[in-house]
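Entry for the shared binder. Reason: the reviewer on the internal report wants the predicted structure included alongside the sequence.
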Amino acid sequence: MKAHVKNAAAYCFLILLGIVMIYPLLWIFASSFKSNDEIFTNVGLIPSHFTADSYLKGWKASGQYTYGTFFLNTFKLVIPTVLFTILSSCIVAYGFARFRFPLKKIMFALVIATLLLPNEIIIIPRYILFKNFGWLNSYWPFIIPALFGTYSFFIFMMLQFIRGIPRELDESARIDGCNSFAILWRIILPLCKPAIFSIAIFQFVWRWNDFLNVLIYVNSVAKFPISLALRMSMDVTGTVAWNQLMAMSILCILPPMLIFFLAQKYFVEGISTTGIKG
């Protein structure tokens, strides 16, 4: 009897905690159907006067570019960055996990040491470097570094996963005539699918929500992603259409949420395991 009471109390607590956590999101969604004045006068979720034109007006934005342009810009930035991050992280982690070469320990220590550097320290050197390359006001400061394995966290994640894969599989593949790249493509990567999905989700969400780095490197409104577009909609010199801003915020939240829920199985498996067992 005591066990049932404890379980019921635990479930009630979790339900209340879940409601508290999800209420702001529900409030944003409900506010997108309210008038601009009602948002600050009605704290409830049900609008007294239902309106849906905030999505249509919000999509048009206030300038010459619609949110269709901003969404397209975001995908142009995020998708190549995610793909190149996966590619470079897998190759670098495979090299550290399966090969012996001079200065391997020192190079791996340098890779891990970059995790200790706060982003604020490297902003100015990176800005000067990208300025000299002529990459400012473009997406190259995000895409090119991803191609060269600059995300140490993902390299370490893949390395730990690959280390959990038995080397006997590599040896069996070599007997069948596979070279190193064939082993990576046919043996390692299929078994690392959970880790790859985890990298994709993390990088997609991080780059999708990135504001500071985009603000530094991109200065043309025509190339703004949605993070800067939402901030641009909050014009302090005029009246902010909060219901339109809430509507666009809901649309901006949807892609990361959909990707997470569709790949949730692999994401949980990739975080909770470090390779195949037994």
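Summary line for the report: The radius of gyration is 24 Å.
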